[in-house]
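Forum: Protein Structure Q&A
Topic: Joint prediction for protein chains with partners

I've read a bunch of threads here and the consensus seems to be that you should model interacting components together rather than docking separate models afterwards. I'd like to see that in practice. Below is the full input, 973 residues plus whatever partners are listed. Could one of the regulars post the assembled result?
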Amino acid sequence: MAEIRYEQVSKTYDANLVVHDLDLRITDGELMVLVGPSGCGKTTALRMLAGLEDPTSGQIVIDGKVVNGLEPRDRDVAMVFQNYALYPHLSVYQNVAFGLRLHHEPKDEIDRRVREAARVLQLEQLLQRKPKQLSGGQRQRVAMGRAIVRQPKVFLMDEPLSNLDAKLRVQMRAQIARLQRDLGVTMLYVTHDQVEAMTLGHRVAVMRLGTLQQVAAPRVIYTRPVNLFVASFIGSPAMNVVEAELRHAPDGLRARFGPHDIRIDARLVSERPGLQAYDGRQVVLGVRPQNVEDATLVETESTDSTIDATVELREDLGPEVDVHVGIDAPVPALEEIVEATQAAGEADVVGRTEGIFVARLGSGSEAREGRRVKLWIDPRALYFFDPQTGAAIYD
Amino acid sequence: MSDEAGKTSRKRPRRHGRFLPYVLLSPLVLFIGALALYPTAVTTVQAFFTVNPVDPPTRFAGLANFRALLHNPFVRESAANTVLYIIVGVALSTLFGLGMALVLQRRSHWRGILLAFIILPWALPAVVEAVIWGWIYDPTFGVLNSALKSLGIINSYHVWLGLGRVLSIVLIELVQVWQITPLAALLILAALQSIPQELYEAARVDGAGRWEMFRRITLPLVRPGLAVAMVESLILSLNVFDQVYVLNGFAPGGASIMLQTYQISFNNLNFGQGYALSLLATFATMLLSLLILAVVYRRVEF
Amino acid sequence: MRRAIRLVVIALILAWSAFPIYWALNTSFTTISAAQSVPAHFVPAPFTTKNYHSLLSQGNGGVASQFWHSFLNSTIESGLATVLTVVIALFAAYAFARLEFRGKRVILVVVLATLLLPVYATLIPLYRIMSNVHLVNTYLGIVLVYTSGFLPLAIWIMYNYFASVPRELEEAAFVDGATPVMALWRVMIPVSGPGIAATAIIVFLMGWAQFIFPLVLSSNLATQPVTVVVAALSGQRVVPFTLLNAIGVLAAALPGVIALILNRYIVQGVMAGSIK
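Posted by a regular:
Agreed with the consensus. Here's the joint model:
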């Protein structure tokens, strides 16, 4: 049906390589999210699929047919633009019907489909209004209506939720997911928001500087990121990373960073044979804030997975508490990390480069600013990356 | 939206036939080529020829036309006149225009009415305006006379136009100022509106008074608008014809360059000299425009 | 205090803009002797509409018919020139704003440069060209000359309007199935309605105000516009003063009413065009 393939697609603008050798397959009926920071090439990739840009090299295949050089109107795709691009001089009804009228569909067919789409998107009361009389959320639904009414092979979405306020975004996200599921249409969804990526996508494709980093189901991206960038970009608050030395100990491998020395779970080590090669050497160690807990709230006897640190900042979130602690250890200044945390909107990029860990603690924690706290780091939830390449260490 | 590196230099893919742009442009190119560029070329070239239906054939004359013009006392006089036209025209229209723009800048319920009335003189034909003002200046029926007499400023009715050269020029140019000030006002208004409000707010917080804000923020930052308005006024006043024709005729007292060109070409039928004078005036326009831009214009970015 | 100054200035501006026309109106509604009186009457007294009557009733030995013939000429010449200019400028501005092609920048610069050309650069040769093709004293000749003069400004205004329409609108149209020409017709033009209206109004007013070109290109009443005729009538001193004022008022009426009612478009058009 409508399978999409990018085959070694590249795009260059004036000597800037914007998309580099993209190989991506989207199966029929799949909702693929293309996510990455600004300038990573995701929107260009989407526009090449739409036919609004031409690839410099490589092929784009829709439903088995190579579409390079085909005009957008001949590709049977529909697109929702970031700013909705509603025709301001037409009513909602006419906006939605626009594409159908261009294709000379019979009038009663057009009417039937427009009203059906209006029903699904709850636009029935708004059909006679003009776009400027609508709220942001309503306009967004009209843009979607215009797309679904054409019953295209492929749905393209260019950051459709980024202009909505937070609450509306959550609502619309759910509606988009439901819509895609009910219609079963292949969808390529572009966003810079990793939360949208993780919640919407059947699979997520992470891009950076024009290159595809990893394509996998959200769960896999989260638990087995293929490199430091993906690990830092996905997950909020962003993963803590620190340069650590792996050393051998009687009970297995341990990691030492700054004044701290923690245990690595033995089973984890056995699942990561590649770690052995780093014994006695430096690695980049990563741990997600959710996997760091106030030691007093953890029912464990041993202290070999704890660190002692001073609390610099405590943020009460309600059910949880975010705590920023100074760890006295060098944080790798790899650009991927800076870029990833900036893109994820984390406010404490500066803190990162000065050796700060963020821990998400249970609300019962008594950690206070200016005092020391003992934090337990889950030895089973550690990530390891090569300090030169940033690649994750598995095998 | 899309923020890929190099977006501003990106070329959109061509999604139309090769020929579509040229098809769309051909009528334009035809008109401009045949009726604007070609005539300009003719003027430029034939300025150096003797072109006179009364004295055929057309033959090369080198700089003879230009020399004859420079020696022609009428031409010299109209050139001097035109200088005065320009000074009065540019100075008054810019001053009044600035004033109007400042008043228009503030949102008020007067704005709609103000704009409608301000535009009015710009929309009417210059000739009709000249005729109407001529009636105001009229020695017998004119309201200028009756008003001045009622106020006791004069004792008897005067003749205003044609009496003194400078006075005539000023009065005639006033009519043109009446017409072109709206344009200057709008151009300056556009520049005023592009000054971010925050600058004024920051100045207020820093303790600046209204005059200081005007001197230190408004005036410097409105310079591009002022320059454009002045150049427009320059071009229009250098070209002044309609008002002069109606209110002064061909009398040497207040003739303008444009009027002179018309007279030489269509009354004396000396087209060659007409071309030469046109060329000189065109150069003068460009030179003076550049001068104004160099002095007044300041590139302003926010 | 500040408020008061502002109101005074506003009153001055309104008076300055309206007074001459008001005075012409005033004079046109009264008698010769009243017009001459000292001190002048600010309100017509006695009030009479006989000047307008004579203009509207075709009496008065031909002055009226001269006037109305020229009025018709003005309307036809401006109207046709406006239509022609707007249509050509529309296509050209779209090409400049949205299409890519070789020589685009050069052509655009040249066209806009002609805006700086003073009248005399082209006046005489145009007269001679028109006279050679026997288009002097014809509507066609005048309309062609007007159009060539108005095109650069019209294109400049419309180009600015088109350029400010977000590209996404046309891209949405392309994705929905439109060709570039369909996108122009169904999206660009409707969305730019105000800009097109502004251009048309400004061009029409410019056409109505033309004097030197029709003076040169039309030597008889067949094609002479209102401006030429009014100038001639006022110079002759044969027509009574109050009647002349009525003629002046009527000549100013059409552009005046347009300016008062549609000023929003004119202002927008001029200010959009001043974004250098």
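Chain B has 13 helices and two strands.
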